[in-house]
Amino acid sequence: MSKAISRRLASTVSAVAALSGAMLVTPTQAHAAWGSQLPFTEVANVSGGGSNYQVGSIHGWVQFDSGGQDARYSLDVCRQSAYVVYVTVAYNATQNWSTGAWSQTVVSSGTPPWQSATSPCWNSEATLTGTIHAADLANFHVQLTGGTFVNGQSLVTDDDDYLLTNPY
Questions:
Q1: Span of the secretion signal (predicted)?
Q2: Measured in whole angstroms, how far is the alpha carbon of residue 1 from the centre of its chain?
Q3: pLDDT digits (tens, 9 = 90+) for 101-123
Q4: Is the peptide bond before 113 cis (omega within 30 degrees of 0)?
Q5: Is the pLDDT of residue 9 over 80?
Q6: Region of residue 19 (phi > 0: left; psi between -120 and 50: alpha; otherwise: beta)
Q7: Which pTM value belongs to this model?
């Protein structure tokens, strides 16, 4: 083989190898940037027997990513004058306005793992944190349900909701 043919063959083999290598390396998708933390407060009250009782509250924040697929949250839950408090964390929530029922994807629901309270919470408290990933993350929904015995006779409950729309 002549040197010219050898060089052309080597050049062709090098070009094919370079193109093959470029096709094997796939770019990785960068994570979208996190937006600002959006703070909120939700308080549940029940009334009965001429009194108003604050049964619980949630103070926290939600943060959406600019890609519209992720959210992260941190919630400080206070159990106050409550026999029981339930917290539901969900996303893509819609409410049937005639029945009040929610259609949503639930992330967690139940009684939080209570700890001794510190000010300003004076009964017991819990911190809930998490990350949500969904192809179309429309909103973030938190429901606080609390109940207490009014006049020592009947359990009165209240549901309070906080719905935050994804700004992206």
A1: 1-32
A2: 68
A3: 999 999 999 988 888 877 777 78
A4: no
A5: no
A6: alpha
A7: 0.75
